[in-house]
Structures are given as structure tokens and as C-alpha cells.
Design a protein that fits this description.
This protein has seven helices and no strands. By secondary structure, it is an all-alpha fold. It has one domain: Orthogonal Bundle (Arp2/3 complex 21 kDa subunit ARPC3), CATH 1.10.1760.20. Helix 3 packs parallel to helix 5, helix 3 packs across helix 7 and helix 4 packs antiparallel against helix 5.
Length: about 180
């Protein structure tokens, strides 16, 4: 129960930081995606199920306050957390390269999904402009923020939450 409360508090704090502080450090109206970093981090550290729930509730917060289509961001972030949870069994949590690669890939897929479902279906066909002016700078900025924030999420996960047993989720254990 303690780990669920800490996880929910982490989601709320990241959402508040995304809405307030991250907007102040945006460069040319490009802001890093702290919520995506949280979903990838928790999926990588805690597994697919935790990544799925963190993504769902994070996206639900964004949908409630900023979304035009209810459930759109919850679905996208849920997929991001679930997909990054597949790396839970394979990679170690303390290595920073894997979260950076996962954040880059999922941020690219997230932005392409937002473009495809929010802009392309409305007839706005400027993919090249959207790619070079928004997607690529945001991917680099989010990966840079991952270098700073991932260690804080790692600390929160291993000091304030109950640790999930990797042996029970090993690919070598028959279930």
C-alpha cells in the first residue's frame, strides 16, 4: 500500500512539474516530456503492469486537464509504460543508457501518434515541418532531461517503494 501511495504521489508531482516548471524551461516552445520519462522509468524498474498503470493515470491527468479527446493520452501513455515494461526482465535498472534509448524511441512514437491522430486526421499534412520543428527537438530535450531525472526516479523506486522481485519475473522461471 505504501508503494502505491508513493507511486501516485510521484505521478501527481510529475504532472504538476510538467504543467508548471517544465513550461518555464521550454526552449522555443519545445518542452521535455517528464510524464513520458516517468512512464518509461517505472515500466523499466517495476515491470509491465506498473508501467501500464502509471501510464494510464498519468495520461488520465493530462486528459482531464488538457485533452480534447478524453482517453487519448491515457491510451498512449499506457502503451508507453507497458512497452517499456518488457525491458524490465532483461536490463538492469541502474544503467542509464537503456532508459535514454527507450525514452528516445517512445517519445518519437508518442509524437508520431499525436501527429497522426490529432493533426493528420484533420487534414494538416505538414509532417516534415512537424518532424523537424517539434518532434526531433523534443526527443533530444526529453533524452537530456532523462539524464537528470532518471536517478531521482531510481532513488524513489528503491528507497520509498517495495522492491519487486526480479527472480520471480525472470524469463527462466516457469510460471
Amino acid at each position: 500500500m505504501k508503494s502505491k501511495c508513493v507511486l501516485f504521489l510521484t505521478i501527481v508531482v510529475c504532472f504538476l512539474l510538467q504543467c508548471t516548471v517544465i513550461d518555464f524551461i521550454s526552449i522555443g516552445s519545445i518542452a521535455p516530456n517528464l510524464i513520458l520519462i516517468l512512464c518509461v522509468s517505472m515500466g523499466l524498474m517495476r515491470g509491465r503492469k506498473s508501467g501500464l498503470w502509471v501510464g494510464f493515470f498519468s495520461g488520465l491527468f493530462i486528459d482531464m486537464f488538457y485533452g480534447s479527446i478524453f482517453g487519448f493520452y491515457a491510451l498512449i501513455y499506457m502503451y508507453v509504460g507497458f512497452i517499456s515494461g518488457y525491458a524490465h526482465r532483461i536490463y538492469y535498472d541502474d544503467d542509464i543508457k537503456i532508459p535514454m534509448i527507450l525514452v528516445a524511441i517512445t517519445d518519437l512514437l508518442y509524437n508520431l501518434a499525436v501527429y497522426g491522430l490529432q493533426f493528420l486526421l484533420r487534414g494538416r499534412l505538414g509532417l516534415g515541418t512537424y518532424l523537424y520543428r517539434i518532434i526531433i527537438p523534443e526527443v533530444f530535450y526529453t533524452v537530456f532531461l532523462t539524464l537528470i531525472v532518471y536517478k531521482a526516479f531510481y532513488y524513489i523506486n528503491y528507497h520509498f517503494m517495495s522492491i519487486t522481485k526480479k527472480e520471480s519475473e525472470s524469463i527462466w522461471v516457469i510460471k
